[in-house]
Structures are given as C-alpha cells and as structure tokens.
Please model this.
Amino acid sequence: MLMTQEDKNKRILAGISENIRKNLQNRPVPPNSPILYSESSPRNTEYVRVKKEIITPHGHIRFSILKDWLTINMLAVFRRASLDWKTPDDLIAFLPAYLEPEAEIINGQVLVIGTPGHNEKLAVPIRSLDAASGLCQCFDFITDVRKANTPAVLLISDADFKVVSRGVIAQSSFMNAIEQGQTAVKRLGERSAAGQPQKSHSDALRRMESTMVVDALS
Model:
C-alpha cells in the first residue's frame, strides 16, 4: 500500500524524535554542578530546541506541525477573530515563529494559513460563511462536540481554490468562542465608560489563551 504524504511526515518526525532522544540520553551530566540536575526540565528544553532546528528547514514538516497546532488550538483563533484585530497576523500571533506561518483572509470570512516551501494552505472560518461564496464546501459544521475541530486543507491559485480535505468544525464551540470574545469586548467598553482603567484587547486575549494554547510539540 502506498504511503500518503502525512504518513511519510509522521515517520520522519518519529525518526527525528528517536534520534534526538538517544543523543540526549547519552549526554553526560556536568560534574560538580552547583545545583541539582533536573531530569525533566533541561533535557526536555534541549530536546525541543534541537527538534525545532531540525524541523524548520522542511516546509512539508512545518505544515504538518502547523496543522496539529491549529487543530489543538482552534478556539484561540475563534476568540481572536471575535475581538479587535487589524491584520491577519493578529489572528495567528500565538503560533510559534519557527513554523513561519503566513496568513491571509478570503472574503472576510475564512483565515488561510500557510508556510514557505509547501503549496497547501490551512483554512479556518472566522465569520458565518456566505453560501454564495462557495466557502461552505470547505467545512463540515457538526453538532457532536466530542469531535475535534480540524482546519480545511486547500490549494489556492490566483483565481480559485481546490479543497484537498474538508475541515470539521463543531458548531457550538465556534459560536461559544465568538460569544465569549464579544462579551470580553463589551466588558472592556463598560469599564471605559465607567472611568475604570481599560486594558487592551491583547491583555484580554492573553488571559483567555493562557489556559488554552497548547504546544503541539510537547
């Protein structure tokens, strides 16, 4: 049976992980250290650092990890989209720089994210979709909240786009995130009107995302 590109990416990542782990396991502990050596923190930090250095040059691997990041943290996108933002980059500011994410908006309704060296793009709805735009074909909106949200995968040309795989969006989580974001904006406005110190939308985002954003490499 022929391997898919995603299977190949997973095999490459598994090999990278195993090689790095072996290298770190064989690394000697520095003698006469003035502090106790932690088995988890320094080695895990080094593991992630080396892994990032190996991953960054490969566009198809960066894309695969980028997809995992968005799948795990899609609520962060929804909530950012519901607040005050000025550019597409504001919506993906939580993504790690080593993935080199690039963002644009289609029809004011869909956030599209890619990475250099890979021609496919990831798509996430940020507004209710206009049926006439054809963007509805990119996603399946479902009622089962047990299923994970996943971005659509698109191939985009100058005049059109092709759906490689449809995204799956839980309707309730999408709407709840939008409503929570709008509530945060309303509270900021009420504080300002009452003469209370007003914190920025970025502060509100950091509070909401501090317990939500998860590293896909951890």
About this structure: DSSP finds seven helices and seven strands in the chain. Residues 73-209 form one domain. Strands lie at 102-106, 110-114, 120-125, 139-142, 152-156, 161-165, 167-170. The first strand starts at residue 102 and ends at 106.
